[in-house]
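Known limitations

Files may contain more than one protein. Parsers should not assume a single record per file. Below, a two-record file is shown to illustrate correct handling: read the sequence, read the token line, then continue until end of file.
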Amino acid sequence: MISGRVTADREAVIRLEVLGSDRRQEPVDAVLDTGFNGSLTLPSRTARSLDLPFLSTRRVTLAGGTRVVLGLDLATVVWHEGEREVPVPQAEGEVLIGMALLEGSRVTMDVVQDGGVGINPLG
């Protein structure tokens, strides 16, 4: 099980391990964002420090409706006792986990400050 906590700001946060090109693991605190249909976002400084392979650029629409062009890298994350390769837009701000990474999982939360967050594989 992947576990985390609900913050005072009512954000569900988990610790996620992202693997660099040299297989070095870097832990990041990531906010679950059910309004994000991608897998994961990372700040550009984190993507550079991990030396993630660049894939392309992609035009995306942010939550406020603004359209921007972001760099897209390939990251490997530790997920449910294994590893998963996911495309990762470089987006400044909080690291976000979206619905594509959560697919195939059951998410449970106690939505109170310091409440538990659990992510388990289905099946």
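...continuing to the second record:
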Amino acid sequence: MKFQLIEDWTHQTMFLGKTITKTLYEKGSIFEPNKDGKYEITQPTGEISLFSLEDIKSLDFLQEIVEKQENDFEIIIEEIPEDDDILVRNWRIQLDVKTTRKKLKEVQRIIEEYVKPILN
């Protein structure tokens, strides 16, 4: 699992009465586990600390990155009845023509006379 910082990770120290803030990791930094499954975090002193997944999840300034896998796909299986040829459904028949209005009315008359009875 990968995690991303939602804000800068800073460390404050006092030196001679002056507060010094050092940014350890900037917002957007990504943390991913090493080969042993531990998360390596470099401390302000330069030491590397190893954190478990549970430790990382408990930090409120990190959010888990959910990665979409490339092979994610959706399968839709629909059973087609054997009598699909006689199944009644809504269908659309569309005809685009270039003609006059008079001829269009003739086509409409023919459709109503010959095709409509077939569809009923």
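Parsers that stop after the first record will miss the second one. For reference, the second record is described as follows. The mean pLDDT is 80.
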